[in-house]
Amino acid sequence: MRENFDRSTRDNAESIPILESKGAEGQKTIESTPDGHWVFKKGREQQARHYLKWSSHLLITAGQRNSTARLTATASDSKYLGQTWFPVVGLSSVEAKAIAVFVNSTPGRLQTMRDPGKTLEFPSYSPQATNKLRVPNIKDDRIRQMLADCWERTKDMVVPQYRDGECEVRRLWDEAVAEAMGWDAAELKRLRLLLHREPHVRGLGYGQHADEVEVDPALRERFTKLADRWYMETCLMSNSDRATAHPDHMEIISMGEPVVPLILERMQDGRGHWDFALGKITGANPVKRADWGNIAAIHASWLEWGEANGYI
Fold this sequence. Notes:
There is one protein chain. By secondary structure, the chain is an alpha+beta fold. It folds into 2 domains: 5-196, Alpha-Beta Complex (Adenine-n6-DNA-methyltransferase TaqI, Chain A, domain 2), CATH 3.90.220; 217-308. It contains 13 helices and 6 strands. It has a 6-stranded mixed beta sheet. The protein is globular and about 65 Å long. The chain starts with a strand and ends with a helix.
């Protein structure tokens, strides 16, 4: 998306609505809801038009935070593109709705989560792994219609964050899947309740790092000591490779995903260049190729990513 499109606004008649965020404030219902508007990038119009051919009724997440996100897939009567959402082309809207219900059910979520990429807390999925998801035979009229009917019944229901645990909409999805597939509804409920209790699913909620739930004080103290010393000893270095190889910086990276909110706090305050550490820890790469070397743009891209994914 970033190579071929630039962000725009809803009131621009030439803008294209897309699904942008996967975080808690992005998609809140199983019906696809555009939350961004983009336009063709100058000089890339031909490529952008080609990319539009991938618009689809069904979009599946390309990775999300397992505690604060809400949905693994969305569907709609309209076709959309998504940033960090995989399009699934070639489906009718009814077929897309049926698969969206299954992918959001417990069997669908467990399959999606089995190949987490970098971390359990914030997995990054690949198209190859997504292509291997086993879904119901949607060419079967009964299965397709039962699941699509469930989509229609639940499309307006706000889906709680994963960390919030048991809720009506997830129960309805599982019950529809059990009935359509002839599976044991009690077993799906057992698996659903187990998944709710997974530590990386029960994690901190969206926006809680700074207020409702504090970062572990010992972790913050250790991070602050390392980050302050790293900054003082490397801020005048012209060689970025030497700075990133500094022992304190490498130790911070080894602390993993829990320090991401702390790193983003530093980045917001303009203290240090943290893009290397964030990339190593999360496996994400939100910086456009055109912005490589532009420190302000790099920081802005990471802060935008942090907000979209529930770290800020």
